[in-house]
Amino acid sequence: MSIEKKFVNQFLTVSSKAALSCYYFVGKKDKISADKAAVDSMRSELNNMNINGKIVIGEGELDEAPMLYIGEELGNKNGPMLDIAVDPLEGTNFAAYNLPGALSVIAVSEKNNLFNAPETYMEKISSRVKEKNIIDLDYTVKQNIYNLSEYLNKKPENITACILDRPRHAKIINELKKLKVNLKLITDGDVAGALLVTEEKYNVDIFMGIGGGPEGVLAATALDAFDCFFQCRFLFDTHKDKQRAKDMGISDFSKKYYLNEITSGDSIFCATGITDGDLVNGIKIQDDEFISETLVTHKSADLKKVIKFKQKI
Fold this sequence. Notes:
With 313 residues, the protein is an alpha+beta fold.
């Protein structure tokens, strides 16, 4: 089974219109309104589609509406059953302060083929590696870098690692500095950071560190289409987190998940730029039209490229 090609343009429209709705709040220092605008647009567009969709990665729970909540059903029920993962505004601070890298992101898969991730933190690692045992969450930073150096035929000082610039990563960052690895430190934008390993033009060889679990699942959908390596492990710090995970069917709290356990079967991924970033450019308005750029993947069609979208406002 695969998702029909016609849905690529439809989901591209969903993320593009959500990006446009958010764009009007860029630089207004109001991330709540920016996020709500993207959420409302995405929900409206999805409900107009001929799909029987269900949110498996969302922005909260039912009692936190108007967010697109986990378990919410979308579409007019006249179409395929799809699992949907969303981050209507990835990089709320980027949008609020008009900084590079704000995105509107959506991923869809056939029913039951997208991991239903709890809203908790996750260790993750990704690279343009096609085999297991080159990099691994259980390896030391030094072992991962040395293995990757040998695999890519690069010296450690010619390798670039992307990591969120957070106090929790101080030890990893110091280790990377000792190895003379080039660092690309990002302040937010977990999804985009993980995707910088997909092509050589981004000049990032490895993404590592702790970030959001839902963002990890979203990134995995695109990484799968690019045939990259991805591994993750959820972090459950509280009893509430563990109970929530149990309710979602997770029993082994220390399990490492590989790409095919996070996403399987066919999928479509769309990440539309709100502000200019490494992956795509942001929204541009010319007269009565808006122009967007979206990184789109459709696994079964072997589609993975940036698509420009133009429409009247």
